[in-house]
Write a structure and sequence with these properties.
This protein is an alpha+beta fold and 529 residues long. The protein folds into three domains: 132 residues, Efflux pump adaptor protein, beta barrel domain (Elongation Factor Tu (Ef-tu), domain 3, Beta Barrel), CATH 2.40.30.170; 56 residues, OB fold (Dihydrolipoamide Acetyltransferase, E2P) (Beta Barrel); 209 residues. The chain has eleven helices and 15 strands. The strands form three sheets. It has a seven-stranded antiparallel sheet. It has a four-stranded antiparallel sheet with strand order 3-10-8-5, with no helix packed on it. Helix 2 packs antiparallel against helix 3, helix 2 packs across helix 7 and helix 2 packs antiparallel against helix 8. It is rod-shaped. It starts with 25 loop residues before the first helix and ends with a helix.
Length: 529
């Protein structure tokens, strides 16, 4: 207790009964207040520890991830249209059914299209038959042309033979003229011998009359003279025979007279020339009746021999056969027509294409699933009459689902292709799906809408835009917890982790990636065919 001399008043301690309900004096509350501070301090330490323990991952997650709740599951929905107008015969799938690629989902009435196929097949057969007939006619016309040309060659050969006959006849005429001249010479020699025998007879006769020669010698001379006279007659007969061989009349007075143009007017020569004229007429050479001259025949023969190849084509029969060939070739497509490729004729090709079109339209009566997936929005039933292009049902290929996340533009600075993504789906609670950023839309959602916003009044209010970002799953769509098209998701992009895969670290896909996609699409089309 402090000393009172220091000016302090003595402290009076009042005693309160133990069972008193009055307030506890301040001296009694001092230990309890110290304990309260200790409790508060401990609680504060615990709270700070909990915040550090639980809040640090949240802070780290906030600093290394970017997320949005404006995201949903989507897929490339396929609508099955009717490619022809027809009546539905059968439907083989209902809503929620799974169909494999290539499965017949809807069948239309086939009867009218089968009839069209049969008609086109018959038309193709008729077109081929007509081409075959024309080709056969072409071969026959070509054979006829060859026969006519052979005939012309034969006529030319006959013309040459007739000329040779003319030459032979002229040689015979010259030989017979020479024989006539030889016979005339023999006749003149016989006449000279007869004159000499007569003179010897007369001389011996005078000697006999003078008795200077014997009678027997006169008889011998007379016999020789008579013999020589007979030889003259024989020579005259030979001369007349030679004239007869030349078709000349008998002429005892002037047997040496023969026509100057005998080599042209001889009967055999004229017959040969007439034969040549007939062949020339068949060869389309104009012949005048007065032109029975061997020299004229020789000139025409030489002219035809020089241009024999062109002479073939000038003959009427040859021209007729060639004209027939030209007509058939014109019907077959022209001189370039190849009989070995006859069924490439435009008529056959057109008939074949029409048959293929009819068969294609027949195949349209079976509407097959182009992709594997689940049937959705079936709008067709047996007996319905569908129109060309009418949508019958949709197929959702759940194996190809992906995420379209609409990130705010202020969130895009750190997002790149190839970054890993954690996907939370409201429908499955804590189930986490894995994906990767695979591409950015080329325009914001507002710009891609049917009615983009326009501000021409001058009153502008900035609105944060959202850009669709595509996120692909890196694992198959699970069957036990499938991602259905349209489900809401929350993707979290780990932008601080290393990006991987095609175009990693980029925002736009490269040309190589597009080429790879096109090549893969081509491979798929080839596999379907």
């Amino acid at each position: 207790m402090r000393d009172q001399s220091e000016g302090e008043k003595p402290v009076e301690v009042s005693r309160v009964p133990a069972d008193s309900a009055g307030p506890v004096p301040s001296v009694a509350r001092a230990p309890a207040k110290g304990r309260g501070r200790i409790v508060v301090g401990v609680v504060g330490v615990v709270v700070v520890g909990l915040l550090f323990w639980k809040g640090r991952p949240l802070v780290e997650d906030y600093l290394s991830h970017v997320e949005t709740d404006d995201a949903y599951v989507t897929a490339e929905t396929t609508v099955l249209p009717a490619r022809i107008a027809d009546v539905v015969e059968a439907v083989y799938a209902e809503n929620t059914d799974f169909v494999e690629r290539g499965t017949v989902v809807v069948r239309l009435d086939r009867v009218p299209f089968e009839l069209a196929v049969e008609q086109k097949r018959s038309a193709l057969a008729q077109a081929k038959l007509k081409i075959d007939e024309q080709v056969a006619s072409l071969e026959e016309a070509r054979a006829e042309l060859d026969r006519e040309r052979d005939k012309v060659r034969g006529q030319l050969a006959g013309l040459r033979a007739s000329w040779h006959a003319v030459e032979a006849s002229q040689d015979q005429v010259r030989f017979r003229v020479a024989s006539l001249k030889s016979a005339l010479a023999s006749q003149h020699a016989a006449e000279a011998q007869a004159e000499l025998a007569r003179q010897e007879h007369d001389r011996v006769k005078r000697l006999v009359e003078q008795h200077s020669a014997a009678r027997e010698e006169l008889d011998q001379r007379r016999s020789a003279w008579l013999s020589a006279h007979e030889q003259v007659k024989a020579a005259e007969q030979v001369v007349q025979e030679a004239r007869a061989l030349l078709a000349l009349k008998p002429d005892l007075e002037h047997p040496e007279r023969i026509p100057a143009d005998l080599e042209r007017t001889d009967a055999a020569v004229r017959r040969s020339v007439a034969m040549g004229q007939q062949l020339l007429a068949e060869l389309n050479v104009v012949v005048q009746p007065t032109e029975a001259d061997p020299s004229w025949l020789e000139r025409n023969l030489r002219s035809l021999s020089i241009s024999s190849s062109s002479a073939y084509d000038q003959m009427p029969a040859v021209r007729s056969a060639q004209s027939k060939i030209d007509q058939i070739l014109a019907a077959l497509g022209g001189p370039t027509f190849d009989p070995a490729r006859r069924y490439e004729h435009p008529n056959v090709v057109l008939a074949r294409k029409e048959l293929e079109e009819a068969e294609l339209r027949l195949s349209y009566t079976e509407i097959r699933a182009p992709v594997s997936g689940f049937v959705d929005r079936k709008a067709v039933n047996p007996g319905d009459h569908v129109q060309e292009g009418q949508g019958l049902l949709r197929i959702q290929p759940l194996d190809g689902v992906y995420i379209m996340a609409n990130f705010r533009e202020i969130q895009l600075k750190d997002i790149r292709i190839g970054q890993p993504v954690e996907i939370q789906v409201d429908a499955y609670g804590d189930r986490i799906f894995r994906g990767r950023v695979s591409g950015f839309a080329p325009a914001t959602g507002a710009s891609s809408s049917l009615l983009p916003a326009e501000n021409a009044t001058g009153n502008f209010v900035k609105v944060v835009q959202r850009l669709p970002v595509r996120i692909d799953l890196i694992e198959p769509n699970p069957r036990e917890t499938p991602l259905y098209v349209g489900l809401s998701v929350i993707p979290k992009v780990a932008f601080k982790e290393e990006a991987g895969g095609p175009d990693a670290g980029q925002r736009l896909r490269s040309t190589t990636a597009r080429s790879s996609l096109a090549k893969a699409a081509t491979t798929r089309v080839g596999a379907v065919k």
